[in-house]
Amino acid sequence: MLSKNIEYFMQVCRSKSISKAAEELYLSRQALSESVKQLESAVGAPLFLRSKSGVALTEAGEILLRYAESATLLWNAALSDIGACAAPERMALGVSLIHTPDSVIASIAEYESVHPEAEIRVVRDADHERLFGRLLRRELDVAVLTAAPIVDDLEKVLVAPSDLYCLMGRENRLASRDAVDFFEDLEGQTIACTSESSLNRYAQHSRAAGAHVKLVGPHSAVLKETLIRSDSVFITPGYSAQSMESEALVAKPLASAPFDADAYLAFHPDQKERLEPFLEHLESVFSKLRRS
């Protein structure tokens, strides 16, 4: 912060009048004149040429003004840099609305408690393609995607290798099986889908299995009701299967699936250094899920 005398001096330079500057500073003319005299005494030279029409800078005054303006710019730059350091590190994480266990969401609060400088916004969406698009547009910093990004613009880290499960009602004829084979056991079953992208993904393979596909929407309550009341299954990654089981629903390993559900953390390469602590945290969370 510049001294008051320097600030007052710069205002007189802008106003070109001690009387006008005093009004703008809400000071008496006498108090401002005294401030100028103190500054002139400190630098050892007169700063203004006074006349009836106002004041003009002396050579010493012009030199002091240049340095005062430079000091002001440096001070403002310092405040800006310090403010950037003190501001929270904001990140947006995109995750599946249905497939992401509550423990992953809960871990965000744990991360923020250890890293108080971080502020993380979680964006949940049932549609993988929408999450992918938002990541490409940089509306998200990192996203958990269940298919490898196929563009060079993104970097990916595998956090959950593929292991698929079928979630179903306990009254479903497949509920007594140790495992479910996609092509041998799904005949007559309906594969419940929570998004258009998953509907399209399963549709091309369901015919070969003698199964049907149905869009039930992104609401977990509707999905659960569909599974309980009909011969329907919901295909989900292993890391989320256990968290979705209940008294009414059971999850069974799915074999021979013609697709995978590898989970990746996807992000833009130029953000890797900034995101690295958070990426390591997410990798640890998914590692614990795989072991549980």
From TrEMBL:
Name under which the protein is recorded: LysR family transcriptional regulator
PROSITE patterns per the UniProt record, alphabetical: HTH_LYSR
Family stated for the protein in its record: Belongs to the LysR transcriptional regulatory family.
GO molecular function terms attached to this record: DNA binding; DNA-binding transcription factor activity
InterPro entries in the cross-refs: LysR_HTH_N, LysR_subst-bd, WH-like_DNA-bd_sf, WH_DNA-bd_sf
Organism: Eggerthella guodeyinii
GO (cellular component) term, any one: protein-DNA complex
Alphabetized UniProt keyword annotations: DNA-binding, Transcription, Transcription regulation
Pfam families per record: HTH_1 (PF00126), LysR_substrate (PF03466)
UniProt cross-references to PANTHER family, sorted A to Z: HTH-TYPE TRANSCRIPTIONAL REGULATOR CYNR, TRANSCRIPTIONAL DUAL REGULATOR HCAR-RELATED
